[in-house]
Amino acid sequence: MYERMLEKSKQPAIEEMEAYCGDCGALFMLLNEWLSTTYHTRQELSYPYGNHYGWCIAHRIKKKLICNVFPERNAFTVMVRLSNNQFDTILSKVQPYTKELIINKYSCGDGGWIHERVLTQEHYEDAKIVLSAKFTKVS
Known about the structure:
By secondary structure, the chain is an alpha+beta fold. It has 5 helices and 6 strands, in the order ααββββααββα. The chain has helices at 14-20, 25-39, 84-90, 96-103, 121-133, and strands spanning 42-46, 56-61, 64-72, 75-83, 106-107, 111-118. β2 and β3 (64-72) form a beta hairpin. α1 (14-20) crosses α2 (25-39). The longest helix has 15 residues, at 25-39.
């Protein structure tokens, strides 16, 4: 249903990624632009983590990975790792869909990974809240 761009031998152009996202293509482009403009991330096309993840736009500051944004058929997914404290700071600010992702995150050290699929404007706004937490200093 939400197939990813899995053909490793053919690197897509960003415009192809946008088109692949269908009705969510504009939100895909907006999120990538927002990250680059707001946090000065560098975008690079990447095929990380093996054959099941597919092509994505990796956002980095220097060598530090901020997130991966995977285009999917009629959607896209933001994959990000936060500390437990960062997740705690946003839990009351996000919609039930995102709260459920945070509660069921893939634990990793002091924190974990979430894969937030964006299908609507509300999901897009939550993705921005989650990503903003990446840049919030918490004690």
